[in-house]
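Re: Re: ligand-bound prediction request (bumping)

Still looking for help on this. To restate: I need the protein modeled with NAP bound, output as structure tokens. Inputs repeated here so nobody has to scroll up.
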Amino acid sequence: MSETILITGASGLLGRALVARFAQEDFQVLAHCRLRPGKETDNVHWLAGDFSTVESTADFLIEHEKKLKECRYLINNYGPIILRPTVDVTGKDLLADFLQQVVPVVDISRFLIARAPLQAVLNIGFEYTGEIRAYKKILGYAMAKNALLLLTRSWAASYPGVCFNLFSPPSLEKAEVLPKQAHIVAPELVAERIFRIMARCSSGFHYRYTDPPATAKN
Ligand SMILES: NC(=O)c1ccc[n+]([C@@H]2O[C@H](COP(=O)([O-])OP(=O)(O)OC[C@H]3O[C@@H](n4cnc5c(N)ncnc54)[C@H](OP(=O)(O)O)[C@@H]3O)[C@@H](O)[C@H]2O)c1
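Reply:
Sorry for the wait, this slipped through. Here it is.
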């Protein structure tokens, strides 16, 4: 029987590539989106949900509980970026960043830990997760992504039966926000790397993207 995976933010840039990669391996893919579902197939099923509040995330979990109870794998890929000049950032802005980046990860993961045969969770960071840097426009986003790293490491130690890892993607081709001198990579290559990480039985690791070795020309 094929394994079930939930991918949040599955209709976005990286999400679409992840859905295609796992569907190709015959996973049952539960693909979350807010408004723009992709094509429904024998092994890709679209589940709509709004993660902008704690209550609407809970509604998503309750509405789709029957399907979600099958999940062995979870990729917490939803994580929108909001640009704000650092000098203007308020406490309310920081709360909004944590509400978007961290709260759905906590509530969705805990729901599946309690109700599904969950084996592995992968959280998605960003290019500079784990680095101490100054940010002029994405301070709240960077703080919340770093909180995900702490959460991942802590849960890996607290739940020995489930693998928790964090993967930090590079900037993605066609992304709306691209830092200067970004290392830009096709989402399909990033999805391939994530697929290989999910196949391992490791826990508590922070993985970064590295380019695949160049193939020798004939
Ligand atoms: N893009 C990059 O260059 C980059 C670089 C490093 C890390 N990352 C990280 O990689 C992950 C994927 O990024 P991405 O750029 O591929 O994402 P994206 O293209 O912006 O995708 C957004 C996804 O979130 C969904 N969504 C939007 N608002 C929502 C809401 N209120 N509630 C629930 N779902 C909502 C969208 O659904 P609809 O389509 O239905 O609206 C879509 O599936 C994120 O965690 C991001 O932080 C991205």
